[in-house]
Predict the structure.
Amino acid sequence: MNKSLTLFIILFLSISIFKHRVGNAIEINGLIETEYNCIHSLYSSFDLIASVGSIDNNNTFLFCNSTSIECEYGYLTSLNFTSLNTKASISLTSQHISCFNKLKKIKIDSSPVSPDITSFNGKNNTEITLLNVDNIYNLVLPSVSSKISLIIDYYSCGFSFNITSLANFASVKITCVDLKILNNINFNPAAIFGDLTLVNVLAIPDLSNVSIPSITYSLNAPDVYTFSNFTTHNKIKKILVTGKSAKPYDFPHFPANSLEHLEFSLDQLTASNPINISHLNKLNYFYIGYNPNFIYNYTIPFKPYPILSNSSNSLMKISSPFIKLPDFSENYYETIILSENGIESPLPLWNKNYSIIKKLDISNNPISGTLDKSYCNLRNLIMYGTLINKTTLPSCFTCYFKDINFKNNILGTVSDIPNNSNYCKTLIPSIKFENNRLFLVGSDLGFEWESIQTNDSEFFVRDSKFNIVNEKYLIYLAESYPIPIKVIEFNFTKSLVTNLFYLSNWFYLPKPISVLLTSKDQIEIKGQYFSYNSSEVLIYINFFQVEIISSTFDTIIGVFGSNAGSYSIDMAIGDRVISFSVQLNIDQITDIPQCPKECNYPNGQCDYNTGFCQCNDQYYNSDCSEVPIPECPIDCGPNGNCEIDSCICFDNYYGNQCEYVNVSIYAIEEATENGGNTLLYGFFGNSFSIFKVNIGGKSCSLNHYNDQMINCTIPPGKGVVSISITIDLNTYNFTNIYKYLPISNGAGAADSSNNNCINKCTSTNNGDCINSVCVCKNGFQGYDCSSISPPSKSNNTIFDNGDTTISNQDTNYQINIASLLEINQNNQIIKNHLLKGNWNLTKSTPDNPIQIFTQTLSDNKDCLITATLEEVRVKRITSFAGINFTLDDNSIKISISIKNYRYQSSLNSLQLTFESSVLNDNNNNNNNNEIQYDSSCNIIDKNKIDIDNQEDQYSNYIIIQKNGKQLIGRIISRVLSDGRSTFSNTLVLNKTKDSIVTALQLPHCTKECLIDPDFQVLVKFNPITCGNSDENSSKTAIIAGSNNNYNYNNNNNYNNNYNNNNNNNNNNNNNNNNNNNNNNNNNNNNNNNK
C-alpha cells in the first residue's frame, strides 16, 4: 500500500469518526450540527476558537473536550464564558446564546455583556451567573415562562437595584457588599418575583408590599439599625437570616400578614425582655440558631407563643444554652426540638391537654431524674443522651422496645432490646362506647394507632381528635344505629405481646359456658365477654372470694380448694353481675345451660341455672326478641306514634309532631245552579280552631263537618269553579273541581225549546232534550242528534295490546289509553306513567264482545289499572254515576278502573290521557269531495278538530272531522271516586289536523277511580234543501271534551311538558299503529266484499 493511500484512509476514518449522522441530525464531535454551529459562531465572534482543540487541522473542533463546556447527549448544557478582550467593543448578547436548545448553566466572567443577556429564552430553567460583569443594573427582564435564574457576584457593586428590575426571574442571588435595593413596587404593582437571596449586604431593604415567596439574607456585619425594615416584609412567606453580626441586637419584629417560615441564625442575638410573638399565627416553621446569650430567666425568651391557625406539621426548634424547659402549656407546635441545649431541669409532668404537641426532642441534654408515666400520653418522645434513669421507665415504653427505632429514640443505640414479655403485662385493652363512637381503651395501647391491626373492615383503629395516646383510640363512628354486634380481633404489632386480644363491641353480661375444678386447687371458667383486666374481676363461690390468677376475654383462672359438691357462683366483671349454681367434680368439666340468642341482651337476661330467658317487662318470646316501642322525647299528639326520636305520622298527617293535615277531596255532591246544599268528601283533619270553605270565590255556609265530610250551603252559581278550604292558618286550593248542576226540565219531561241540550239537539225533528241530554229520534244519532249511521257498517278491532281501531270504508280511527299523569296544583306533571303498549290481556273468549286488560305501575306496585273494552252489538240504555244515556250498536264502550294509587302529595290529582287519531286508507282512492252543509246550509269544513260542549251538559265531546265521517267519543263528566259520583273535567293537551290528546281530570281518589267513555262512527246529516242529498264527505272524530273552552289555549306550557314526556312513547308505538292499520285495511276489504 502506497503512502498516499494510507493518508487517504486515515483522513477518511478521522472524518467518519468526528462527523456522522444520528437519526435525522448530523453530529459533529459530540454535538448535533445546530449546537456545534452555535458554539462555533460564538467562539469565532470573540476570538476564542484557538482555545479549543482540533485533530483535523482546524476543520472541526472538540468543544465538548473544553474545560469551559459541558455536553450531554449531543447538546451543550453548561458554558463558562470569559472574553479575551481582543474585541472589547463586542458585548455578549442574548442572540449569541439563544441558539442553544438545552443550555442549563452559563457563567459569564469579567466580560462585557448587553443588558438583554437575561432576555435569553431559556428552555431548561437556565441559570445565568454574572461574575464581575459591568452594565447589569438595568437588565432586560425575561419572560416569566422562561424560568431563568440569575446569580450576580460582585465584590463591590457601586450601584443600586430597583426591586422591579429583579422581577420575572425564577430566582435571584446577589453577592455584593454595598448593594442597595430600592423599593419602586408602586411603578409595577403586578410584578412577579421568585426567591431572592442577598449575600454580604450591609442593610436590610424596605420591601413594603413586595410579594416574594422566599428571601434569604446571608449577612456580614450588617447595620443592625436597618433591622427595623423587617417590619416591611409584609408579603413574604419565608425568611431566612444567617451570618455574623458585629454587635449584639434584640430579636427583630416581623409582621404577621404572610410569614409562615422563619429561620433566624445570625449570631449576637440577645434577649433583655420576654419576646411576644403571639401575632405570628401563621408561623408554621420556626427555627432559632445557636446564640449563647439568647435566654431570659434561664429559659427560652419567647412568651407568649402564637396560637397557630394551622398547627398541622408545624415545627419549632430552638438552639440556646438555656437550663430550664419552657412552659409547654402555652406552646402550639406539633414538633418541638430542644436537643443539645444544656437543659438541666427535670422533666415536668406531661398534661393530656398538651395534645397538639406530637413530638418532643430533648436528646443530648443533661436532664436527670425519672420519666413520669404521664409521658405515655406523648406520641413521640426522643430522649437518648440524657441522664434520665433508664431502669425505671414506665411500662408503656418498655412494652414497645420490640420497635428498634422507638427503642433507640429512648435509650440510644448502646442498649440491648429487652425481650421479656413481662414488660407487657399492663397491656390491657377493652372497648368503650361514647356519643355514637366506639373506642379502644385501656393502658399501654401503644404510641402509634396505625400499628394496631384488626380483622374487621368496619372496626379498626383510626386517627381522631378524641384519641389519647396509649389510653384511647377511636375504632368506629356509628353513623347509624344500632351498631352491628361483633367480636373483634386486635393485634398490637409493635408490642412484645404476641397473643391476640378478642373484644366485643357490645357490653354483654359475662357468659359462662363451662366450669372446671382441678386437683391443683384451681377453678377455671370458660365463656365469653370477660375482661383482660383481672383487677375488675370478682368471683364468689358460696360467698368465698376467689383469688384471681388471670383473666382474658374467654377464660378466668382462680385459686379454689378442690372439693367436689354443689356451689353457688357469683361473678362480677366491673358492674356486670351474674349468678348461677353448678355441681362440680374434680377434674371434670361441667357445662352451663345456655339461652337462645343470649336473650338478645339487653332485652333479657339468661338464667344459667335453667337455660331460659328472663325477659324485661316490655319484651317477650323465648329469646326476648320482641322489640318494644321506645319512649320518645317528642309529643306526636293524636296523629302519630313516636319511634326512637321522631314521629311516624298516621296517613294524611305530616310535620315534626304530625301537626299538619294532608287535606284532600275525593268526591263532591254538587248543588244546582240555584245553589243549595253541597257535600264534600275527603280528609280534613279533626283538630282545628278556624274552618272556612269557599266555592267559586263565595263562602259556603257550614252546616256540619268532621274529618271526612263537609256539609255546607252554597249561593247560586254556574259552570266549573274552584274550591278553597282554610284550616287554622293554612289554605288548601283545589282548581276547577266543582261544577254546578244544570237545572233539569223535569224527570223524563221533554224541553220543547231544547235550550238545555248541546246544539239544542239540532232541531225538534232530530231529537228531544230530556234531563239536559239529547234523546234522538227519526233515525238520527250523535251527541246533538245531527248525525246518521254511515252507509256501511264500521269494523271494530280490539288488539291484544289494548289498542282499538274503528274502520269505516277508507277511514281508520285509532283509540289508545295513553298514560296516567300525577299533577300538582300548578298543573305540573309530577309523575308520568306510560300505559300505551303495556297492557296485558287477562280475559278474552271467542265471539265475546268484552275484553279485559290490566297493568301495574313500575314505581307504584300497589296500583292496579283495569281497562274493560266492549264492542256494543245491540243498542241499549245504560247509566253511569247517576247519568242515563244511550249506547248505540256498533260502538265501543271503555271502562277504566284505577285502584290504590299512592300520591306524592294529598293536594295532587290524576289525569288519564287518551290519544285518538284518524288515517286515510291509502289503498282506497274513492275520495268523496262533495261540499257538505250543516242544518242552516253553512258549508262544513272537511278537516276539523274542535271541542263541542256547553257548561250545562253532563257529557264532554271533542270533534275530529275529516272526509265526511265522525268518530263520536262521549265521556260522562262524572266519575266514581271511592264509590261516590263526582264531577270530572276534561282537558285538551294537544291536537293536530289528524289527532287529538285529551286528559280526564280525576279527583283525589285513594281506593278507586272509575271512568266510562264510549266511541262510535257516524256521518254528518246533509239537508236536502242545500242542494246535495248524499252524505257529505267530511270525517269527524269526537273525543272527551272539556267544559272550559280556555283549556287548550291556556295550557301551552302544560301541553309542552306532556308532549316532551310522550314523544319517545309515541315513537315506540308507531310500528304497532302501522301493523294495526294493515289489519284494518284487510278488514275493510273483507267488509266491502261482503
